DNA sequence: CGCCTCGTCGGAACCGGTTCCACTCACGTC
DNA sequence: GACGTGAGTGGAACCGGTTCCGACGAGGCG
């Protein structure tokens, strides 16, 4: 429990000089700095973050709010954030908040409002006005990732464009009976990620003269492999002319569709083409055509923005995150092919 | 920016009394407490954790070290820990440490050694002597989860028994040509989770008079679905008498095996029985027979132990975590059946 | 009725850093 | 040679709580 006063005494300087020497702020003669550093090393001095943050008001800690840990996208983002934060000397405090329960209010009022974090990164959760106000009022920057928030800097891919792109890929292959496995609430919440991807689908279909509801089918399902499985069974299980292509809202959902197709004896891509969204780690194994996004990199970017807002990056790189959507890329594999005639 | 001195002034008491009233420590008259609480509520007083931890030495923060976020088991454990910690008023600081890189030393020396956390929960990472000593020396309790650590309280299932149980299930079904998809390093590190499961497999095979190496095959692979996929292709892809049953070291690996079997035109369970370990969220969808474990509950338990070590739970429930292995359960589904004759 | 005990409370020290301010001193300039 | 300048340093206040210790009054006991 060596304190800075011990270091100062050992180095023969004042506490003030020791602090300046170790923190790098303020002018200290080179020779003095070396003496102080040597003294600190000798007694194994470790500064108390509590004492520092008490006076500076900075905790060197960023809160991350995330609804799921075990969905691939979120896990990847979290890893990216963690790495970037660690490199910058920040700690990451995790809040796993799915719904708007009492838990959530408690986290905002009790944990985040306290001086436990300097900033907040919210992944895939829509913050309420009150929640945003509560944080901003205390001068804590917020950055949203996935799901644009009004009033706070948001990093997100263009989900509508991605839905459009995926659907157009299927259309270009000659498919006309195309189904969409959408995420829960896609129709009810047009501004959600699911809603925007659905919108892109509808837009492409309409532009191709394929009135949705006529031959296009949309089924909403949970964002998981079992969700894709049961959803696909619903979509393709009944007799009649089946869709020849399926646009799944995420790769995990698409994986479930693979399994359902196998169960139904439908071959891929012969009888059914499947495209997903994400660029999931497993998509190569499935041979899944997908629109890739890069969640790890997105997490890193979110940290960049946060650090800039905290006045760390200062000038440095100008970073063109001026509202431009994050990059995505169509990767064609073996799960999509020309429509059977 | 309301400080406790403001509360005290408003309530007409001293800082000392205000602190006692709000923290619940020390004797305060009921009427005084009510006045202080009313004053605190009125000006929206929020205590500074930095100030409190500076003097008490407690941060109300627990560090969690985890090698992956995106493996189901780890994600589930993390969620369980988060929930339990939050309920107890603790924050969770996440450290995503896979290998023994320089990053890792930095986390231990710079982050954990500082007074940023009160305790550490290490999931599936083997701590070095030095790392353990460094934490214990500073009075920070450590709890290990999955992969027993010498010298620190460890929560873990009995991996050898689980491997035994899974293999015996296949043996009871009459299988004699049984392959094991083991985790990386299973042979090289007999005390690892992978090593112990492999050991259980060998033990069951030997007891059944089936000399490993004769008709039993072991292949080591990455703990993921693609790992299971390529591993299974290796194991079953070449001609000759194939195994009729497969014991996969984890459910995710088993899922990959399903996919590989489909690719090879092998029916399940007709030509190949598959059993996994974990009780993965998706195992029901696959109809996978598995030995379930309960990672969310394990995380909760780890928090219980940590809180006890921090002197929170004090007496309360005696909790029989006296080294007894965590619960597991064999769940038979449609992926295993009698050996073909 | 005197004394002890206990509940209640205030004053003040303290946790361990950071930073403002004043001061010294060497150096360059006119 | 007088003076301004700025680097380098120390003293002390301060961040916002917690806790030790002592004071005080009321009630119980002998």
SSE blueprint and pairings:
The structure is a homodimer of 341-residue chains.
Chain A (H helix, E strand, L loop, with lengths): L3 H8 L3 H9 L6 H13 L6 H8 L4 E6 L5 H16 L3 E6 L5 H11 L6 E5 L5 H9 L4 E4 L8 E2 L3 H14 L5 E6 L9 H15 L9 E5 L3 H13 L7 E4 L2 H14 L8 E6 L4 H4 L2 E4 L2 H15 L19 E3 L10
Chain A binds a DNA duplex (30 and 30 nucleotides) through helix 2 and helix 4.
Description:
The structure is a homodimer of 341-residue chains. The first copy, chain A, folds into 3 domains: 4-47, no CATH class; 59-157 and 296-309, 3-Layer(aba) Sandwich (Rossmann fold); 159-292, Response regulator (Rossmann fold, 3-Layer(aba) Sandwich), CATH 3.40.50. Helix content of chain A is 44%, strand content 15%. The first copy, chain A, has 13 helices and 11 strands. In chain A, strand 1, helix 5 and strand 2 (91-96) form a beta-alpha-beta unit. The longest helix of chain A has 16 residues, at 72-87. Chains A and B meet through helix 4, helix 5, strand 2, helix 6 and helix 10 of A and helix 4, helix 5, strand 2, helix 6 and helix 10 of B. Chain A binds a DNA duplex (30 and 30 nucleotides) through helix 2 and helix 4. Chains A, B: InterPro entries: HTH_LacI, LacI/GalR-like_sensor, Lambda_DNA-bd_dom_sf, Peripla_BP_I.
What are the defining features of this structure?
homodimer, 341 residues, alpha/beta, Rossmann fold, 6-stranded mixed sheet, 5-stranded parallel sheet, elongated, DNA-binding
